Amino acid sequence: MLYTGKGDGGTTTAFGCDQQRISKSSELPEALGALDELNAFLGFVKMRAHGEVRIAPLLREVQETLFVIQAAVAGAEKRVEEGAVKRLEELTNAIEQEIPPLKGFSIAGGTELSALLDVARTFARRAERRLIAAEEVQACSLSGELKAYMNRLSSLLFALARLANHLAGVAEENPRY
Asked: What is the CATH T-level fold of the domain 24-167, as seen in this structure?
């Protein structure tokens, strides 16, 4: 059954983990919800990137790791491995070697895929903030690898957004302030 009615009063539990009921507006559900939003949006971006054989598989890989992160945050015996952080760093570094050097802030857009990746980057940053807030109130415990992964993820998504423009031959625009 897809519903139980137990949350009708505004409380929830972390699925499959600690069964203590907590407010749906508290830090842990906020963090888990931000991760869920990011993962769902990456699914959308992945589908829009179907023609870009380099980007779509990477997004699928990130989605798998986000499920591990959600489980770990909820209290399951899961963890982000150090290799996952190194993988994001290697991918980001490889992309940076391929695209023009960064000359400052850039205006999101250029191509649809680039714009979608920029939105995903902002979702990743929000999820990272929500995770830190949940840890600060001791609603969860985050490993160093998990925090590093979330921090590197937004960098990878930014690099992918720039790569999408580059592959399409679209020059980045910088703000004129």
From this structure: Hypothetical Protein Ta1238; Chain: A; (1.20.1200)
